[in-house]
Amino acid sequence: MNESGTVWEWARAPAGSSFNLSSVETNGTSSNASVLTKLQATKSKEMYSLRILLYSLIFLLSVFGNLLIIVVLVVNKRMRTVTNSFLLSLAVSDLMMAVFCMPFTLIPNLLEDFIFGAAMCKTVTYFMGISVSISTFSLVAIAIERYSAICNPLKSRAWQTRSHAYKVIAVTWVLSLGIMVPYPIFSTLVPFPKSNNITAHMCRPDWRISQMEQIWYVLLLFFLFFIPGVVMIIAYGLISRELYRGIQFELEQKNDCRVMKNGMNDTVSHGHDDSDGCYIQVSKKPPAMELSAISSSPSSKHNMPRSNTSEAKLLAKKRVIRMLIIIVAMFFICWMPLYTANTWKAFDQLSAKRALSGAPISFIQLLSYTSACVNPIIYCFMNVRFRKALLATFACCTLPFLNCWRREGDEEVTGVTAASMSKFSYTTVSTVGPC
Questions:
Q1: What is the DSSP string of 312-325?
Q2: Contacts with 384 (C-beta within 8 Å, 6 or more apart), sequence order
Q3: How many other β-carbons are positioned within 10 Å of the β-carbon of residue 360?
Q4: Among 6, 7, 63, 295, fewest CB within 10 Å belongs to which?
Q5: What is the DSSP string of 337-401?
Q6: Cα dihedral 83→84→88→91 (10° resolution)
Q7: Using CA of residue 415, residue 419, residue 420, residue 425, what is the dihedral sign?
Q8: 3-class SS of residue 207
Q9: What whole-number distance in Å separates Cα of residue 79 and Cα of residue 383?
Q10: 8 Å CB contact between 18 and 350
């Protein structure tokens, strides 16, 4: 969770200031104090430059990547599947996070002053909370939808529709708008004196009672980090187990094919495709190749298309498992340090400030922002179908006289039936890397 007030409050007391004062008192000489001051100033400038560079890079990647996703999913009606509806909501929330979080965190940290006014303080903190909440809930919704579509495909087809996805998205947004109401209510500008006798301001929630602050951060820790993380681990863990079982079954079938080369193997394999529920569906053309091979080719040539298809399924399933591990790992890597820091600060403010003031909390904050640029890469740009849709979209924009979207072929984008689309998209969108 992005706690802007916490960061700006810590930023008012840079770590270097206390270090310089203690050094002067210990050494008692002006020369040592001067050397330490120069070293500290040089280090501070380097850290400022590094922070500006990293924040700018993450900001540009987040804005550019999420805008591309929004454009592709909005322009192309064929891409409006159940999964992509949640990905569109995730892209919008990540874009909000980039726009409302990064500039209004970096600038006050560098200036040690919130210069945007009281009204903007309430607005920014509210949108910060909303964006993070929607992003987290969207990740949980995607995990649950994938689990249902992949591991219970027959049951999920009855309710996994776009209208159902729109209802879930609407509930997600309304719930986030309601949960984050305390931010605009309690956020305010708090004045404090700077070292040059200038009064600056920090934008932070004024809870008035320390117990309220502790309860708030504990609730955020559980409902926006711990519970979503556990749900994602369970959902993706069960999916990985099913995919692993499919891999084992496919390997057994591959070994059997070396011994048995008759029609029975084909029957067993096709029956597995229907019952496993975890296959990455491939193009409709390979089965046609098998039929033609049966009618006009020797038995040795007949086995080659099935072998290639089997290898493709194995590789696709292994990529899915790796990608699911990456998704869960990135969620915890991005958000655990910030939630830990916020909870620590709520219960022991002094020790948290001493340990995390200045650059440490700024980089922890930046780590949480990287989720806004990592999500587009994991969930969309590593998907072959999305990349083709992206190229087709911009090709049609640059060459409007070419009917390039149709030329891409309906089969690649929407070449599966409505009943099988959910199963196909949930196992491919955001999980399958380059083929």
A1: HHHHHHHHHHHHHH
A2: 428, 432, 434, 435
A3: 14
A4: 295
A5: HHHHHHHHHHH-HHHHHHHHTTHHHHHHHHHHHTHHHHHHIIIIIT-HHHHHHHHHHHHHHH-TT
A6: 80
A7: positive
A8: coil
A9: 13
A10: no
| Distance, CA of 124 to CA of 101 (rounded, Å) | 8
Instruction: Report d(CA 421, CA 157) in Å as an integer.
Output: 9
CB contact at 8 A, 429 and 84: yes
Are residues 386 and 91 in contact, defined by beta-carbon separation less than 8 angstroms? no
pLDDT tens per residue across span 20-75 = 333 334 445 555 666 666 666 666 677 778 888 999 999 999 999 999 999 988 88
**277-336: per-residue pLDDT in tens?**
333 333 444 444 433 333 344 444 445 455 556 677 777 777 777 888 888 888 999 999
Would you state the structure tokens that stand for residue 416, as one six-digit string?
A: 């599966």
Range 246-254, long-range pairs (CB < 8 A, 24+ positions)? 246/276, 246/278, 246/279, 246/313, 246/317, 247/314, 247/317, 247/318, 249/276, 250/310, 250/313, 250/314, 250/317, 251/314, 253/310, 254/307, 254/310
**What pTM does this model have?**
0.71
